[in-house]
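Pilot study result, target chain (174 residues):
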Amino acid sequence: MWLRNAIIAIAVAALAGGCQVRPLYMDTATGGPLSPTPDLMAIAVDPPRDRTEQVLTNELSFIFRGDGSRPTEPLYRLRFVLDSSDDNLAVELEQDLPAAVLITLNATFILSEIATERTLLTGASTTTASYDYSSQRYANVRAEKDARERAARSMAENIAGRLAAYFAARRSDT
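Predicted structure:
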């Protein structure tokens, strides 16, 4: 019985030995060469075309550099196409007005090297945010704007996380 348990323990240890688990954002003291932070700081994001893209661009800049600035020497270019849709979640029958609205943002992004114009990573991200529909016009306008901004911030975190994972994997392979 103990022999079987010992064999299972050795097999599990051998399988787990091949796994490499480490934090995504490593500081200089614990392994800076593998950190994706320098690569993220070198990403230039294309200019926005509307308010929602502006929020997404600003949030990405803050995530990449911490201060919202542009990179001094950009090595990478991030382009994205953003599409949004509004869906009524429930309709009040007597008034024929929605009770709540769901905003869906879809983004397709492309990361490329500036020097070679080679595409490094492509991806898509989808996020949603909802708001309650009111009988007051200004309240609806403001609620929709806030929901779009929440969705854009959530999307920025998703995209930044995927870019950080890409750069961390790329640095650990070299």
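One observation from the pilot: The longest strand covers residues 76-92. A full batch analysis is planned for the follow-on phase.
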